[in-house]
Amino acid sequence: MIAKKNILQSKVTSHLPKLHFNQKAAIEHERLTSLIQSMGDGVIAIDEKARIAVYNGAALNILDSNTGIEDKLIADVLKLYDKTNQPVDVTEMINTTTTSMTTRDLCLIYSDGTKLNLYISIAPVRLGYGKKGQKGHVILIRDITREKSLEEERDEFISVVSHELRTPIAIAEGNISNAQFIADKNFELSKIKDALKQAHTQTIFLAGLINDLSTLSRAERGKLSLDIEPINTHELCKDLYKNYTPSAEAKGLKLTLDLGSSLELLYSSKLYVREILQNFITNAIKYTEKGSITVGADQKDNGVQFWVQDTGIGISKPDQEKVFNKFFRSDDYRTRENNGTGLGLYVTMKLVRMIKADIDLESEINKGSVFRIFIPNLQ
Predict the structure, then answer these.
(1) Residues 322-350: pLDDT tens digits?
(2) 235: Cα separation from own chain's centroid
(3) I need a surface site. Which of 31, 93, 122, 182 has the fewest CB within 10 A?
(4) What is the rounded distance in angstroms from the CA atom of residue 106 to the CA atom of residue 96?
(5) Where are the strands (E) in the chain, listed by range?
(6) 211 contacts 347 by C-beta, under 8 angstroms
(7) Residue 40: count of CB within 10 angstroms of its CB
(8) Measured between alpha carbons, how far is 289 from 310 in angstroms, rounded to an integer?
(9) From CA 135, how far away is CA 124, in angstroms rounded?
């Protein structure tokens, strides 16, 4: 940065008219130079021929340049692309700017393929009436890549959640309406029970979604607390087995336990350990059509190794690398047939990191998956 600053200061001076400055003018000049250099945003001033007259170090950083850019055409230095990655005629864009304009829809693409989203402000230089001097434009550039990424995540979040909420609400409302209609007409108890059961299932899904969103929100804001307590691993696994056996049997699946004989107390967050295992078991049941699911635990040095194994649809190699990403959902039609936001495993990974655990995934299409997680003692 120091080298860039020196370049700028010498070039700003070289482009000023060769006049004798009085002391006041020299002070103002130094102030202006210091102001431009202190700005975090890139500043580039061009003349009427679109050649660069003044710039600062921040501009060089954004342009990824270590050499001076004075006297160069702006089009040769600031090569912009639109949303579809098509090149933009920078000179034409500037020449047609008669009033100040801003845009957040253009980007730079470096030689290595890295893409930088930019905020760009272009303002024409206007001289007072009757005054003589050099006209041109001042261009302000700012890196907004992270902001753009957050905006895209927000838009995707709203889209995914609104879609996932719409379906269960519609199903629940429809089934409750059917139950009311049947009760009013002929009181067929079996049909009423079936309608209420489906409404209840969708309500449970909504509750799970809200829980995921709440946990995600707290995790993103760093508001999750970590309460360490002794966990009886054997009792925890038996409790999970008891809670999820009905869900497994409802799909004709066999849920089994495989617990080591030497399990000891585990010191970690009981809440997070339970939620992590619940997410794995829920997914195993959801994506297994026939066969079995095994929940296991074994004592290891300074911790416990848990695993959840299923005979489900499996996860492809490319998807295994993305399965813990936010909003990720496989393109496999069998995955799309099940409700889901793509938040469950993302939240799981957040909790895994909080309790300093390690996850290992093995899977093969049509043969099933094994999620292994080693949870260390935190005391």
Answers:
(1) 887 766 566 555 554 555 556 678 878 88
(2) 36
(3) 31
(4) 17
(5) 42-47, 52-55, 80-81, 101-109, 115-125, 136-143, 229-232, 254-259, 265-268, 292-300, 303-310, 358-364, 368-376
(6) no
(7) 9
(8) 10
(9) 8
